[in-house]
UniProtKB/TrEMBL annotation:
Biological processes per GO annotation: centriole-centriole cohesion
Protein name as catalogued: Centlein
Region (Disordered) location: 1-35
Compositionally biased residues, Basic and acidic residues: 1-18
Gene Ontology CC: centriole; centrosome
């Protein structure tokens, strides 16, 4: 740029000299030299301008490179600072890890000792767990058996309840109490149906009422069982009374036949021979023979077996109403026969 400025100054000086020379009267030879010099200077000026442009482009490229390198240097410096900071942090971390390693090595000894003790405890606990597992398996098996039995009993209960409801209609011909229980059962069925219809609307209240009704039905079933037991006892007692009455009627007939066959004198003679009174003689004549006693024992055993059979039916699994009805009807038929026999004996004795 300085050379350019010098050349421009010289060019301006030459132009000024050429102008002054044109005005003065000079020779033409020096003007030619001036023109040549002017051309040389212009050529040099062009060369210098070209060189200046080249230099300016190179300067710009160098400036850009310098700027890029400065940015690169700044990035590298920032990276170096980060690396130094990371290095310091890693040093602190290594020192911390070394201290922790020492502490962990010290703790490892104690942990190994505790681990050994824990292993011994684990072995003992494993033995206990195996024993408990066997006991749990056995309890599970018992639970399964209990659940199966429960389901079976529930099925039996439902079947018995259904059979009881079906066979209640057949027991209406026995006594007035049977009729009352049947009415109660029908009322219970109607109330249960009403409860079931109301259960669709109010489930909670209906469930409580159904539970109450179920308790009531259980109480009524128990009452029915006691009624059946009392009925069978009364029936057996009435049959026994009829048997004793029939025996007494037979004895009275036999005694009367004996009295008719024997005269009063023969009776008194027999009483005097036996050294007893006539009433004692009548009692002797009324004594039962061995066959009659065996028959009474057999009847007593049959009555006892019949009562036991009724008890077994009441305690047995459902359904049992048909068997119970057959047993009671059998006893009622026996009573009917005994009543007919007793009435026929009373007619003959009269």
């Amino acid at each position: 740029q300085q050379e350019k400025e010098d050349l421009q100054g010289k060019l301006k000086l030459r132009e000024h000299l050429s102008r002054t020379a044109g005005k003065s009267e000079a020779t033409p030879a020096p003007s030619k030299n001036v023109d040549l010099e002017m051309k040389q200077l212009q050529w040099k000026l062009k060369n210098s301008n070209n060189e200046i442009t080249k230099q300016s482009t190179t300067i710009k490229s160098l400036k850009n490179e310098v700027h890029e390198k400065e940015e690169r240097i700044r990035e590298l410096q920032a990276k170096i600072s980060r690396l130094e900071r990371d290095l310091n942090m890693k040093r602190h971390l290594i020192e911390d890890l070394r201290s922790r390693l020492k502490a962990n090595q010290e703790n490892e000894k104690t942990s190994n000792e505790t681990l050994e003790s824990l292993e011994r405890k684990v072995k003992a606990l494993a033995g206990d767990c195996s024993n408990k597992k066997t006991s749990i398996d056995s309890l599970k098996q018992r639970l399964n058996v209990a659940t199966k039995e429960k389901s079976q009993y529930e099925q039996m209960y439902h079947k018995a309840k259904d059979e009881l409801e079906k066979k209640d209609l057949k027991l209406t011909n026995l006594e007035s109490k049977m009729i009352e229980t049947e009415c109660a059962m029908t009322e219970l069925e109607t109330t249960a149906s009403q409860q079931l219809h109301g259960l669709a609307k109010q489930s909670g209240q209906a469930l409580e009422t159904v539970q109450k009704k179920l308790l009531l039905t259980n109480d009524k079933v128990e009452e029915f069982m006691t009624f059946v037991k009392a009925l069978t006892r009364e029936l057996q007692h009435s049959v026994q009374e009829l048997r004793t009455k029939i025996k007494q009627a037979k004895k009275m007939g036999e005694v009367r036949a004996c009295k008719k066959g024997l005269s009063q004198e023969s009776v008194q003679l027999a009483a005097s021979i036996l050294n007893v009174s006539t009433t004692d003689l009548e009692e002797i004549l009324e004594v039962e023979d061995d066959e009659e006693t065996a028959k009474t024992k057999m009847e007593f055993e049959k009555d006892k077996e019949w009562l036991q059979y009724i008890q077994q039916l009441l305690e047995a699994q459902f359904p049992f109403a048909s068997y119970l009805t057959d047993a009671i009807l059998e006893k009622l038929n026996e009573k009917k026969k005994l009543v007919e026999e007793y009435s026929s004996l009373m007619k003959h004795t009269v």
